[in-house]
Amino acid sequence: MNNENFEKVAVLRRPLESGRQSPMNLSGIFVFGAFLQAGLYAAEYYIVGYSTDHPYKEEILRWHFWVSAVLIVLGLVLAIPFVYKRFEKLQYLISVLYSQNLFGVSFYICALFVATDRKFGASADSIMTFTWTTLLVGLFIFLLTSARFIWKIRKGDYREGSRSDQMRAQFEYKSYLPAATVAGLGIFFIIQYVIRQSGMEELGTLVFLLIGFGIFYTMLFVLPEQLAIFYYKLRYRSFNFEGRPYLVESVDEDEAEELFGDSHYR
């Protein structure tokens, strides 16, 4: 573990440097997100869940209730300054799970229940085929995006000040093409399924499904970077705030290890 390895991922500190993902900001997100998550679950249960024909409706709602409840409680505890200053890394991990559950899972369940509304008259086998297909599309998106992310790190595209870094915002979209292609195929399958079940009259439903599944797949696009930042928070001290309002200054990792020993990485 040396300075060269750290420099390869220095750009990943920017969401932390900007303050968007600082412990203080995350604490506010946890509080606001608790109300939003409760509202989305109510929509799942009372609005779209009421009329769905999905054979595993009860299990999905029960599972999502308990997962959401645990994450809300953990989020509120980690929103307390005394707590998040001592458990910064845990707070960030919970924030990743929190955001994925709030936006990814909640919108996926809502869209899934709308697509399997009883008015469409779809069979249980057809509903399960649709469910597994949408989940497999999500899995492929995550795997392709993860592979792309690892390749770009090894190539040095996240090295601070590099030409590639400066041009990244302009040309980043090209490296998303494989995962975007899979997402596009998934969206095409969803459109085809709705049209086959209901005809072209359900335009509003189609728009809602595109938004719901689109948000779910978008969250899977960003998940690899979220997990990478968490990993580097564990590996490098300079990815952490340690109770300060700013990040620990980046230093030569070899020199830091000589001066501070293993404590530099904790």
Q: What does this protein look like?
A:
It is built from eleven helices and no strands. With 266 residues, the protein is mainly alpha-helical. α4 packs antiparallel against α6. The radius of gyration is 21 Å and the shape is globular.
Write a brief structural summary.
The protein has eleven helices and no strands.
Radius of gyration: 21 Å
Distance between the termini: 14 Å
Number of strands: 0
Sheet of most strands: none
Helix and strand element order: HHHHHHHHHHH
Sheet/helix structural class = mainly alpha
Percent of residues in helical segments? over 70%
Q: Poorly predicted ranges (pLDDT <50, ≥5 residues)?
A: 167-178, 252-261
Rough shape?
A: globular
Please state the average pLDDT score: 80
Q: Tally the helices: what do you get?
A: 11
Approximately how much beta-strand content do the residues carry?
under 5%
How is the topology of this model organized?
Blueprint: H1 3-7, H2 14-17, H3 23-48, H4 57-77, H5 81-86, H6 88-115, H7 124-155, H8 163-171, H9 177-198, H10 203-235, H11 253-260
Helix pairs in contact: 3-4, 3-6, 4-6, 6-10, 7-9, 7-10, 9-10
Task: Provide the descriptors you would attach to this structure in a database record.
0% strand, globular, mainly alpha, 266 residues
